[in-house]
Amino acid sequence: MNDDLDQSAVEQLRRCVHQPRYRVAWLVGPPRRGKTRFARAIAQQEGWRYLDYTLTPGYFDSLQTTIAAYQPAELVAAIRSWCEQTTAPVLVVDELDALLACWTLVQRKVWARQMARLASLPCGLLLVSHVLAVETLMPVLPDSDIRYCLSF
Known about the structure:
Layout: H1 7-17, E1 24-28, H2 35-46, E2 49-52, H3 72-85, E3 90-94, H4 97-100, H5 105-116, E4 124-129, H6 134-137, E5 149-151
Parallel strand pairs: 1-4, 1-5, 2-3, 3-4
Helix pairs in contact: 3-5
């Protein structure tokens, strides 16, 4: 057990990603608050798959020629596909902000709404971002339920 992990935060995330319908949780907050460290630690502790979207080859780098036209629905489909390919009970996707920063606020909200209500995933999903804030996510979360969003 990693003593550095806030156990109440771990429990909150466990409950969210193991829901029967909407299995998506968010870890958000300003840069340099420890979100990545926490995401990596919880993934290691729980046996979840950690994916660094920006640094892992084959993800963000594959958009080099199409990033200007890349749309929220395409990222939703890609993330669903990654969930289908993982054998871990939860997929943690970190460093999405390189792509989110290329989109308008409207595109970010559209994507967040689609992700928050993504049903029937084969595994839980934890999305990590500093571009999206709790205030942006609250209206798009199922039942505007703050428990789906952990702020650092």
